[in-house]
Amino acid sequence: MNKTYRYPPTESQERSEVLASILCEEIIKGQLEPGEKLSEATIGSRFEISRGPVREALRRLSERGLVDFVPNVGARVARMSLTDMLDLLEVRVSLEVLAVELAALKMTQEQKVHLEKLYQNHLSMFSVKGTHSYFQSPEDLDFHYAIAKGSGNPVLVKILCEDLYPKLLVCRSQHQNIKGRGVKALKEHQTILSAISEGDAELASMFMKRHLQSARDSLKSLIEPSN
Predict the structure, then answer these.
(1) Which superfamily does CATH assign the domain made up of 82-223 to?
(2) CA 186 to chain centre
């Protein structure tokens, strides 16, 4: 950790929120590695803030499952197993099926246009970088972020966008050997997009459920290979 940041005078809570966001991004990108010790003193020195906001930022990340507090050791970057990822995917199915149903009914035309642009950008990116990089990058979740936000339900948005999706990104960052479902996933995104564009909540729900169950089953086959 070699960068130094300077903040204008702010309240301790605001500083801890900013710091938590920065550390979260570094964990997702793998700049802070699984099991790496997160020293309050070192982080405080790096960001030129007192230990109070640092401690609060680490507590926030712990609540989101991104940091573990180890007795007699302190805070460390949480290690995410493939089983952890499977657990997240199982929860994700129910939440995103609800999100896409609401999005199909509530999304504005502007939001639908944005979702279409995301899909087209993903197609272009996939053609350049390929299946594996698509799966491991944030672009796959950008599509799902947009749908969650299009649901118009702030509780659902918070659970998915602030809690579940960051954990999924950390899992992917820590398991970059997993092969992606790029071609199939993009085709599934297209069917979901079409259903949302038509305002068909039932169809969007069905396509989303198939999409996420396929991703879950693909991961499950890696954890529980057939004999």
Answers:
(1) GntR ligand-binding domain-like (1.20.120.530)
(2) 18
Please answer whether residues 192 and 207 qualify as being in contact, where contact means their C-beta atoms are separated by less than 8 angstroms. Answer: yes
What residue spans define the domains of the chain?
12-77, 82-223
Say if CB 119 and CB 139 are below 8 A apart. no
CATH of 12-77, one of 1.25.40.10, 3.90.226.10, 1.10.10.10, 3.30.360.10: 1.10.10.10
Q: Specify the pTM.
A: 0.79
Per-residue model confidence as pLDDT tens digits over 10-48: 566 688 999 999 999 899 888 999 999 999 999 999 999
Main-chain phi, psi angles of 57, to 5 degrees: -65, -45
Residue 148 CA from chain centroid, whole number: 12
The answer on pLDDT for 57 being more than 50 is yes
What is the spatial distance between Cα 210 and Cα 73, in angstroms, rounded to a whole number? 43
15 class by beta-carbon count within 10 Å (0-12 exposed, 13-18 middle, 19+ buried): buried
End-to-end CA distance of the chain: 44
Distances (CA, A) of 88 to 7, 80, 84, 199, 200: 35, 11, 6, 28, 27
Q: Are 80 and 35 in contact (CB under 8 A)?
A: no
Dihedral sign, Cα of residue 157, residue 175, residue 189, residue 113: positive
What confidence tens digit (pLDDT) does each residue in 151-171 have?
999 999 999 998 999 898 888
Nearest partner of 115 among 127, 125, 107, judged by Cα: 107
